[in-house]
Amino acid sequence: MTGGNNPERTAAGLADGLLIRVIMRKTVSEIGLAAMSCHRAILIFVMGLGLTVCPLTRAEQSVTLAWNPSPGSSVAGYVINYGSDGINYSNQVDAGNNTSWSVTGLQDGSTNYFEVSAYDTNHDESPPSAPVEYIAPAAAQLAANPVTNTVAISASPAVAGSVTGGGAYVTGSSVTVSATANSGYTFTSWTENGNVQSTSPSYSFNLAADCTLTANFTANSTLLIAAPAVTTQPATGVTTADATLNATVNPNLSATTVYFEYGSTTAYGNFSSTNTLASGLAGAQAVSVPITGIPPGAIVHFQAVAQNGLGVSFGGDLAFVTTAAGILFAPVPDQFVNVETPLVVTNTVSQLNGDGSGVTFNLGAGAPAGASISADGILQWTPACEQGSTTNLIIVWAIDNGNPSISNSVSFNVVVSACVQVTIGSSVSLTGDDASVPVTLYSTVSLTNVNFSLATLAGRFANWAAASASPDMVAATVEASDPSQPQFNFAVQSGPALLGALPLGTIGMHVLSAGDSAFAPLVANNVSATELDSTPVAPGFGQAGRVVLVGPQPLLEVSLTNSFNPLVTLYGNPGSNYVLLAANSLSAQAPWISFTNLTMGGTVQLINPGPLADKMVFFRAYRP
User: Fold this and answer.
1) Mean pLDDT of the chain
2) Which of 260, 313, 488, 520 is the Cys-Cys partner for 245 at CB 3.0 to 4.6 Å?
3) What's 354's DSSP letter?
4) Which of 267, 273, 278 is nearest to 293 (CA)?
5) CATH tag, 229-321
6) Are 410 and 321 in contact (CB under 8 A)?
């Protein structure tokens, strides 16, 4: 039987009715069998005993023969005879009891004939099969007609991970496919038709035919099905009557329904259509639902609601304002501002029937404390420390002076940075004595440590010290190589983080004997801190304190009472007698009039001189 250069031929004639099929090739790219596995060529031979599957190994100009075993019980092996014609076979191979064999060393373009016989333990051979002819392709023919195959890949389940490496390749080339698990999943195996091919995420093989591979993943045992997690996101596409409500939802592997409540207040009262997220999904999924029929210029509150078999979760309230007809606002993006830093936003509008003149601006309800807007639309706000770490919805209204009046509004969020503020207290001390002042903290974020320095008068203090208000939980340290600029650190050792308003501890110092009486400021500088997640918070803020240093001279301070009368504070040495005088001018001709004479019971004495006839009064004190 002749086969030309057809790569596959079948011949009859083996003992017991055996049939044999042979495949000959230079490289695996010459085969092109549709039934091959992607990593091994499979030949199926019909024989008297049924079907046998034989692997086709790769070799240069080789042919692989495969056959089913002979049904005879005395068969000991098989012999392959082959040559350049179908009469005289110059070559013989004993295949032993194998049912496949590869013959190598064939020449490009050569014609070859093959037959197979079975033999018993006495080496008596059965009649051979009919010869099979095959013409090996020439090298030039192989290069001009490369064969390609396709690798199709997928992930199971699809949400569990990603796969790469699929596509078309030259048959016989090396292919590598890779699988990457998503959060909450672990890669287990690559399979083809349900059979495991590799347990490595990166799988390499020589491609022999089209194949379909599946990367299999399993959910981590720690990924438990739970109630959904939902976060309401800002509305988009806001017009005079329409908007799109948005949210992110983690269904936590369970089938989950999502809808939105909305209305003019946080009581809502209206409900959007429902979206359904399929089971098996993990991680944040974007959900958007359009709503319509909203009045122009309306404030709309909304929140996302997600429900699965394990519970209902709410995403939190957000709000937007629909556009009003007649007045059009220039869009205002969301803003970010640091605490104690001025924010200025200029709002502009145009009118469908005018140029925007005759329009005045006002702030809508719910604006943060301290925010203001001018009639011409300039918004100003300097957030206080207590407003740190907040997101503030600001609504600006524009109202024209027509009759009837029309109005419109724009809304935007202002995010305020975190605030860390250290406040230094005050005290009064005689020169030569020890003194201390309290230190308090206000923080809008959870902290593990706080650092700051103090700036004060040079040459007035020594022996700086720090003490924690909670020594079992917070350690306090000081470094004072420069006595006029000591450095302080308060660090959590155990217990809760530093959050909100709380006492840190005290700062102690020795007041040097030398020097006049003075008001010595204690200015907290270079305030910095670290959050629980190691994020630095800087710059922080400092509120200054002071130490009143009482030396040989008395010191005076004057303030006003609620009735706008002067209140004089005298600082002096305990047991010393002081005379206080007042004058209405500092000119040389103005008389100083004594209005009290007293002996100090301590270092501080408050004196109320009563109502004064003159609007401007000067005070002084001396020790007789």
Assistant:
1) 84
2) 260
3) B
4) 273
5) 2.60.40.10
6) yes
Rounded to whole angstroms, the Cα distance separating 503 from 439 reads 6
Which pTM does this prediction carry? 0.49
Residues 521 and 353: their CA atoms lie apart, in Å, by: 61
**Which class does domain 8-143 fall in?**
mainly beta
Amino acid at position 268, single letter: Y
Are 38 and 151 contacting, i.e. CB atoms less than 8 angstroms apart? yes
Matching residue, tokens 């006049």: 516
If one counts every other C-beta atom within 10 angstroms of the C-beta of residue 47, the result is 21
C-alpha span between 572 and 552 (Å, rounded) = 8
Distance CA 104, CA 87 (A): 20
The span from the CA of 172 to the CA of 165, in Å, is 16
DSSP 17: G
- Is residue 128 very low, low, confident or very high in pLDDT (cuts 50, 70, 90)? confident
Of 198, 385, 411, 435, the closest CA to residue 297 belongs to 411
327-416, superfamily in CATH? Answer: Cadherins (2.60.40.60)
> Do residues 517 and 550 make contact, with C-beta atoms less than 8 angstroms apart?
yes
- Whole-angstrom distance, CA of residue 465 vs CA of residue 613: 48
Tokens of 524: 């907290």
> CA-CA distance, 313 to 307, in Å (whole number)?
6
What order of strands is seen across the sheet that includes strand 593-599? 593-599, 577-583, 618-622
Nearby residues of 534 by Cβ (< 8 Å), 6 or more positions away: none
Q: 10 Å Cβ neighbour count for 32?
A: 18
Q: Distance between CA 559 and CA 608 in Å, rounded?
A: 10
Interval 498-540: pLDDT, tens: 999 999 999 999 999 988 999 999 999 999 999 999 999 878 9
At 15, the pLDDT band (50, 70, 90 cuts) reads very low
CB 388, CB 336: distance < 8 Å: no
Residue 169 CA from chain centroid, whole number: 38
The CATH code of domain 420-550 reads: 2.60.40.680
pLDDT the model gives residue 240: 76
Radius of gyration of the chain (CA): 46
Mean pLDDT lowest for which of 36-45, 175-184, 414-423?
36-45
Is residue 468 within 8 Å of 487, Cβ to Cβ? no
Residue 276 near residue 263, CB atoms below 8 Å? no
d(CA 424, CA 184): 49
Distance in angstroms (rounded) separating the CA atoms of residues 87 and 155: 55
Q: Which two tokens stand for residue 34?
A: 């549709």
Q: For residue 438, is the peptide bond before it cis, meaning its omega torsion is within 30 degrees of 0? A: no
Per-residue model confidence as pLDDT tens digits over 226-247 = 789 999 999 999 887 889 999 9
Give dist(CA 445, CA 26) in Å, integer. 72
Rounded to a whole number of angstroms, the distance between the first and last alpha carbons of the chain is 141
Q: Do domains 229-321 and 420-550 have the same CATH topology?
A: yes
